[in-house]
Structures are given as C-alpha cells and as structure tokens.
Design a protein that fits this description.
mainly beta
C-alpha cells in the first residue's frame, strides 16, 4: 500500500489549496479514505472522510463549509479542497486508509 500526498504550500489567509493523495496497492474503491492533520504541539486530528462510493462524507466541525473531500475511483485519487484558509489550518496534512499513512504535506497559512 502506498499513499502519496501533494499540493501543500504557503498560502495567505482567505486563500485556497487543493491537496491530492495518490493511492495504490489496494482495491481503492472499496474503502473509506481520510484526511488528517497535525499542527505543532497538537494531536493528529481527523479533518474529513469519504466513504468508498463517494456519496457520504464527514467533516470536522472546524472545517465544515470550507473544506471539501472528494475522490476519483478510476484514478485512485482522493482530494481535499480547502477554501477560506485560516492560520489555524496550518498543519501537516496526511492521507489515511486503515493503518496506512502517507508522508504528509505541509500547509502553512500566513500573511
């Protein structure tokens, strides 16, 4: 199993970023996929989850209305569209499936 994130970077408050996670090594469409994040000095937290079919999604209260998780079961990709970013969103973002984790991608929101 391999999960590879991309799309992080530095963005100003109010800006947007789109994270991508390329998955391989398992039957992607059969499983829920998650995005987690970990800010300095804080525990890793679930940001969003998407069920295998893509019709059911779950969001942390802190990102509801600003972030959107989606997936492409043909390309084996999961995405996290992040809008109206705030300084509190600064963290390393991780793609997750069961016990497997990507290497993470840094998102920094700063002016």
């Amino acid at each position: 199993v391999q999960l590879v994130e991309s799309g992080g970077g530095l963005v100003q408050p109010g800006g947007s970023l789109r994270l991508s996670c390329a998955a391989s090594g398992f039957t992607f469409s059969s499983y829920s996929m998650n995005w987690y994040r970990q800010a300095p000095g804080k525990e890793r937290e679930l940001v969003a989850a998407i069920i295998g079919s893509g019709y059911h999604t779950i969001y942390a209260d802190s990102v509801t209305g600003r972030f959107t998780i989606s997936r492409d079961n043909i390309k084996n990709m999961v995405y996290l569209q992040m809008n109206s970013l705030m300084a509190e969103d600064t963290a390393v973002y991780y793609c997750n499936f069961r016990e497997y984790w990507g290497q993470g991608t840094q998102v920094t929101v700063s002016s």
